[in-house]
Amino acid sequence: MSLQRRIEGLRARIQSACEAAGRDPVTIELLPVSKKQPTALIREAASLGFTRFGENYVQEGADKAAAAPELSFVLLGPLQRNKAKPALQAFTELQSLDRPELAARLRRLAEDLDVVRPVWIQVDLWDEATKLGGCTETDLPALIEALGGDARLPLRGFMAIPPPEDAGAFVQMATLRDRLQQDLGQPLRLSMGMSDDLEAAIAAGSDQIRIGTAFFGERTR
Ligand SMILES: *Cc1c(COP(=O)(O)O)cnc(C)c1O
Fold this sequence. Notes:
Bound molecules: pyridoxal-5'-phosphate
CATH class: Alpha Beta
Number of domains: 1
């Protein structure tokens, strides 16, 4: 199937999920996840109007960012401390913030490098932390505190990978977002939903869905 056909199929899924939820499709960002996909395919997506792409691995994302400097790349998934600097250099946004030490290190480095990088806190309410990364609800205040409202790392919102097939988990995440939005007095977005569960995510109130396979096809490398 061509890229264009897959994207049309996705748009149709987003459209019906929005109709069911009484939401406007333009309020939902479709972030293509290009990990393990060749740069040529990313360029094809760019020719169809996409300018931001999610990547999981720092080196792979840095290589792609160097090859396609006109596009921007968002880091998803766990970030090791020793990769913090190349991550800040290659990615325009980081969705991998999940612990205070990482926040402190990113703040120091962002100042040294003189860059501004919006960040999303990855939350894990379901104890899958070992595998996928993410901050527990209990540890969230300390992490937000460590971020300290730093203007170089503005907090965009929360990223989560709720257990698939558990609609309640998506709602739980949306409730947490609503509460923190109130507490912090700023708009906070919610990034959840992947190829197989974008409907549940949209129903619960996700603002950004991160789509790999249903967008690009099976990963090749
Ligand atoms: C790979 C990945 C995605 C996309 O997954 P698909 O199931 O291929 O849509 C989304 N978010 C994260 C964090 C990922 O690692």
